[in-house]
From TrEMBL:
GO terms for biological process: DNA integration; DNA recombination. One of its GO terms (molecular function) is DNA binding. InterPro entries: CB, DNA_brk_join_enz, Integrase-like_cat_sf, Integrase_catalytic, Integrase_recombinase_N, Integrase_SAM-like_N, Tyrosine_recombinase_XerCD. Residues 126-306 form the Tyr recombinase domain. Gene3D superfamilies: 1.10.150.130, Intergrase catalytic core. This is Recombinase XerC.
Length: 306
């Protein structure tokens, strides 16, 4: 069966509109520092909107966008719904189109009032995904890791990583990306991490988390330079989820825990800390192991998907 033809990445429209799309996408990357995947998703959603207008009204121009009516936007939403697009993806599509409309307004082309007159689609709320009964019981056993043929320092390393995941609310990539010089040790109440989109933020660290990291460093047989990765594998190289033989999280029932989200809520009180890059972290954190919600550090770098 032949493969479907690739979509033309060039947005429809006259020269002025295409130049505006190019400048808008460039601004998202350079000025707003959005992640590359987010910018590509916004460009794709805007291109689909312009293709819809091109099929219904002819080659779109900037004045045509300014003159849009709410029914035109609703027709686009209905057409996407008919194609099987879910509410989250449709909400992201409207976010991309509205972002471009704000750019046109800033550049003096006029206001696309139709987008403000249309409500975003409702998104079905999903319940949290708790651990299964077997996995929850396994996590409470004191002999969870007895009998494993692994060195004690590796067990201490895994305990420190898990402490950062569950006790500080870090993603796995954030925890494994910490350098030795930034290790949250006893007496240090915050750690600086680099998250999605290259954004830097500071996260509160509980004393028990710092104690777990200190115990790992004391047991680690390798001498780590300040710029080396804090967490290393059995051969001394930087640790990664793929290179580790430990399931994330290592709860004794890996198959039951694979549905657990990669980012867990933090047990620290709600705090607001400004990072060196000017970003803020004012996240309300739950002390429960089962996540009540999945908050993100920046709505600019994370968009809803189905």
């Amino acid at each position: 069966m032949p493969a479907p033809p690739a979509l033309d990445p060039t947005p429809p429209g006259d020269a002025a509109l295409r130049e505006a799309v190019r400048a808008w996408a460039d601004g998202l990357s350079r000025e707003r520092r959005m992640a590359r995947n987010t910018v590509e998703a916004y460009e794709r959603d805007l291109r689909q909107f312009l293709l819809h207008l091109d099929a219904r009204r002819g080659t779109p121009r900037i004045p045509d966008l300014v003159a849009l009516k709410p029914r035109d936007v609703r027709a686009f939403m209905a057409a996407r719904r008919a194609e099987g697009i879910g509410g989250r993806s449709l909400m992201r599509a409207l976010a991309g189109v509205r972002s471009f409309a704000r750019y046109l307004e800033r550049e003096g082309h006029g206001t696309v009032a139709a987008l403000g007159a249309v409500r975003s689609p409702k998104v079905e709320r999903r319940l949290p995904r708790p651990l299964g009964v077997a996995a929850a019981r396994a996590m409470t056993r004191t002999d969870l890791r007895e009998g494993e043929d692994r060195e004690p320092w590796i067990l201490a390393r895994d305990a420190a990583v898990l402490a950062l995941l569950y006790g500080a609310g870090l993603r796995i990539s954030e925890a494994l990306g910490i350098a030795r010089k930034d290790a949250p040790l006893t007496g240090i109440d915050a750690v600086t991490v680099t998250g999605k989109g290259g954004k830097v933020r500071m996260v509160p660290v509980l004393p028990v988390v710092a104690e777990a990291v200190a115990a790992y460093l004391k047991a680690c047989p390798y001498t780590l330079d300040p710029d080396d990765a804090l967490f290393v594998g059995a051969r001394g190289g930087p640790l990664s989820p793929a290179s580790s033989s430990t399931p994330w999280p290592p709860c004794g029932a890996p198959s039951a825990c694979r549905t657990a989200p990669r980012r867990m809520p933090c047990a620290t009180p709600s705090r607001r800390i400004s990072s060196p890059a000017g970003e803020s972290c004012g996240r309300s954190r739950s002390c429960s192991v089962t996540p009540r919600s999945r908050r993100r550090s920046s709505t600019r770098s994370s968009t809803p998907h189905d």
